[in-house]
């Protein structure tokens, strides 16, 4: 915390000194501002990147190509303040979602593609590939006023290429290590000059993956197969009326990526690390979705315009996986998880926009309906020795073997067959209005308000059966003391109650809940000169509460959460218009934060529930600097400092105090440094280095030692990734070679995992990959 405060203070002082210097030198110099104007479209009022006070990182089509950013995970790696991957990413240390397997939860960061806000597993697994994309905007910080309940942490906005009024085509063929193959194409047809055009794009990206299943003899156990087919139609009947219809079909299929943990005593041993999986059964995760949107813009007159966005998603995801990740079969310590999820949503938004000299505004109405369903039938053997050891180290050997007692008290595997479903239907409507008013040539006032209303209809049912015979309390060894105040009879009573509760059925339950919130924001911007401005703004955001089905306690209800964000921004064009320096400093106060914890009174992390933490805070800074060193060479760099902390957080039973812990998987420093070179003959080269600091992957020891349920502190190590790509551009052909993770850095992206028998496991990041491609344009 001291280092963070020191770094944050240094950054704030630097920004203040720079601004003061710029004000003093304004009258002496007037730099030529010739940088490319990038328009940020992910907010109600479109503005250039330099006019947008919110912290935003923009990747244009040119940037994606120059840096070889093939998928959204590549983009996250090069965005300071963001970490993780497409299925689970973090903005300012806040996770994008609490798990798509829980349909009752709203998201904390939205992903929007061509106006369609993705939900459920489609968001996690169907938004990865970036072929024929015009721009990606990573909005860091609350966007609830802009996007509603699902954007407390931020948003990712993806805009694909619109049709153009000319005939053109692109074909790309490539391949690389680990069986990587890519085939992509674009065909754009001008149907009627300046009136109608259609654009068709398709892509297929396959890989054998890098997980080796030694049990099954498969080196492609973690294979991936992603494909997207997209059709967009542009119809512009007059200069005042424009519509773009988009349809895309997405398929995402992959295998298991979890690897064994090669280490002891909760310390990952990278010298022994291997991408090895021992599952005896196949594991597949398949997602398929259809997205459609219609964007209509009508310019009423020179002041007023109307925008309509109609969006639809239909998605389905199936999972079949080896629960125990070993050769064991059901009945002998094994298990199979079978799940089917459906996520359908549609939305309609109308905006009335006004723009006159010194006044800009957008007001409108939004409605959405989301239907999320998950059904499962799981056959699982619970490994009782591991569960007993979580309660008290060594208890598993005492109760399930003859190592201590002359007889076995519990057989080692508790068989269960679970079947059930959860369905949540969410209807949301909102009214919003946002305005910017120029008070004079230098001072601008911005303000807005959104009223958000949500209704959830929650339905769930579950049934679990077991053939296991529990031992009776009062055996001949029942009086043996295991710990102060606990003998074997007491342990048997506690264990039996938990196992009996585990197989207790949850009858059909229905509940309807309503949530509403007023979400204001206000800010002020001072334009020091044509190239430099500073802003300060305040925003409120929230996420609704809800219901969930827990393994032990049946249906659990949790409250909504709110966050107030206070932020200052600097926007500066420097060095005679060749450099762009942007910085944001923020502080956020989070109340009633929804957190998933282990259910009190249980001995396993399989028992989780959502609770509302009392108080949490976030603080940090983000800075980016791009500089055109010459006509052929560009430097880009960025840095983010982040601190997250639970200020007040007690478990529901009051036994454990989690206060003082940081958020899970929240690195405090992320940075990128790179350059792009291209000469007049078409030779180009790009190189960059990304850094992600270490982060906590489990709650640390509680400050209260009353309960034995405290979880040992576990961290993920920091890592640095080096990416290189180079090639040659001819008139219609581009040849390219690349190296991802050039130093073959070995790092983990999620080590908060364990096999059924308690053996820790992890998901390792991708190893070094070398590949090449050729692109034809015509």
From TrEMBL:
Q: Which stretches make up the TonB-dependent receptor-like beta-barrel domain?
A: 253-741
**What is the membrane topology noted in the UniProt record heading this document?**
Multi-pass membrane protein
- The residues the entry assigns to the signal sequence are 1-22
What residue stretches are annotated with the TonB-dependent receptor plug domain? 49-155
Keyword flag Transmembrane: yes
Q: Where in the cell is it found?
A: Cell outer membrane
InterPro entries assigned to the protein according to its UniProt record, in alphabetical order: Beta-barrel_TonB, Beta-barrel_TonB_sf, Plug_dom, TonB-dep_rcpt-like
Carries keyword Transmembrane? yes
Q: Which UniProt keywords apply?
A: Cell outer membrane, Ion transport, Iron, Iron transport, Membrane, Signal, TonB box, Transmembrane, Transmembrane beta strand, Transport
Family the UniProt entry places it in: Belongs to the TonB-dependent receptor family.
Descriptive protein name: TonB-dependent receptor
Species per Swiss-Prot/TrEMBL record: Pseudoalteromonas aurantia
């Amino acid at each position: 915390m001291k280092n963070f405060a020191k770094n944050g203070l240094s950054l704030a002082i630097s920004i203040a000194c720079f601004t003061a210097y710029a004000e003093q030198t304004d009258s002496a110099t007037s730099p030529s501002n010739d940088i490319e104007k990038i328009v940020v479209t992910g907010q109600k009022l479109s503005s250039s990147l330099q006019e947008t006070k919110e912290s935003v990182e923009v990747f244009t089509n040119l940037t994606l190509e120059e840096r070889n950013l093939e998928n959204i995970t590549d983009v996250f790696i090069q965005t300071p303040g963001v970490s993780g991957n497409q299925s689970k990413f973090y903005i300012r240390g806040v996770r994008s979602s609490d798990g798509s397997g829980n349909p009752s939860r709203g998201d904390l960061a939205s992903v929007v593609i061509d106006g369609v806000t993705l939900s459920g597993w489609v968001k996690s697994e169907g938004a990865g590939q970036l072929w024929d994309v015009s721009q990606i905007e990573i909005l860091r910080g609350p966007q609830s006023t802009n996007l509603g309940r699902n954007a407390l942490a931020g948003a990712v906005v993806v805009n694909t290429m619109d049709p153009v009024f000319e005939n053109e085509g692109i074909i790309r063929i490539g391949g690389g290590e680990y069986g990587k193959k890519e085939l992509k194409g674009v065909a754009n047809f001008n149907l009627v000059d300046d009136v109608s055009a259609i654009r068709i794009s398709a892509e297929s990206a396959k890989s054998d993956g890098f997980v080796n299943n030694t049990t099954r003899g498969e080196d492609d156990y973690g294979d991936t197969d992603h494909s997207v087919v997209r059709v967009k139609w542009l119809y512009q009947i007059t200069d005042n009326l424009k519509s773009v219809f988009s349809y895309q079909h997405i398929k995402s299929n992959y295998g298991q990526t979890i690897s064994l943990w090669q280490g002891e005593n909760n310390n990952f041993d990278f010298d022994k690390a291997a991408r090895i999986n021992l599952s005896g059964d196949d594991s597949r995760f398949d997602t398929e979705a259809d997205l459609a949107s219609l964007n209509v813009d009508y310019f009423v007159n020179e002041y007023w315009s109307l925008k309509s966005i109609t969006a639809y998603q239909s998605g389905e995801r199936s999972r079949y996986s080896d629960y125990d990740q070993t050769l064991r079969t059901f009945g002998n310590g094994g298990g199979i998880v079978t799940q089917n999820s459906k996520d359908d949503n549609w939305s309609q938004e109308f905006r009335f926009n006004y723009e006159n000299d010194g006044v800009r505004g957008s007001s409108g109405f939004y409605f959405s309906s989301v239907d999320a369903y998950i059904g499962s039938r799981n056959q699982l053997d619970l490994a009782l020795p591991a569960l007993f050891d979580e309660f008290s180290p060594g208890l598993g050997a005492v109760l399930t073997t003859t190592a201590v007692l002359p007889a076995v008290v519990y057989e080692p595997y508790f068989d269960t067959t679970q079947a059930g479903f959860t369905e949540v239907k969410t209807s949301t409507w909102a009214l919003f209005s946002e305005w910017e008013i120029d008070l004079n040539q230098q001072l601008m006032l911005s303000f807005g308000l959104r009223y958000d209303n949500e209704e959830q209809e929650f339905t769930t049912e579950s049934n679990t059966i077991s053939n296991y015979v529990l031992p009776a309390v009062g055996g001949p060894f029942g009086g043996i003391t295991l710990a102060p105040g606990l003998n074997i009879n007491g342990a048997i009573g506690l264990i039996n109650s938990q196992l009996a509760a585990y197989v207790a059925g949850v009858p059909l339950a229905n509940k309807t809940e309503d949530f509403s919130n007023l979400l204001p924001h206000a800010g002020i911007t001072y334009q020091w000169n044509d190239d430099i401005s500073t802003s300060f703004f305040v925003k409120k955001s929230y996420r609704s509460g809800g219901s969930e089905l827990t393994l032990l306690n049946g249906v659990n209800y949790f409250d909504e959460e709110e966050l107030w964000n206070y932020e200052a921004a600097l926007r500066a064009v420097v060095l005679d218009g060749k450099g762009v320096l942007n910085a944001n400093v923020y502080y956020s106060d989070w109340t009633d934060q929804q957190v998933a914890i282990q259910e009190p009174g249980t001995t396993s992390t399989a028992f989780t529930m959502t609770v509302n933490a009392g108080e949490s805070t976030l603080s940090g800074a983000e800075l980016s600097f791009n500089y055109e060193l010459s006509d052929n060479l560009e430097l880009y760099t960025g840095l983010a400092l982040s601190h997250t902390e639970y200020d007040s957080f007690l478990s529901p039973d009051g036994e454990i105090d989690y206060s003082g812990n940081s958020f899970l998987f929240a690195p405090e420093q992320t940075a990128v440094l790179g350059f792009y070179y291209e000469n007049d003959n078409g030779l180009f080269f790009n190189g960059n280095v990304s850094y992600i600091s270490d982060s906590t992957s489990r709650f640390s020891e509680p400050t209260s030692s009353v309960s034995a349920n405290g979880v040992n502190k576990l961290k993920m190590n920091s890592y640095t990734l080096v990416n290189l790509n180079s090639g040659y551009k001819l008139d219609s052909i581009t040849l390219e070679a690349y190296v991802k993770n050039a130093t073959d850095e070995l790092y983990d992206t999620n080590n908060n995992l364990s096999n059924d028998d308690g053996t820790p496991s992890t998901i390792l990041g991708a190893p070094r990959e070398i590949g090449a491609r050729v692109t034809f344009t015509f």
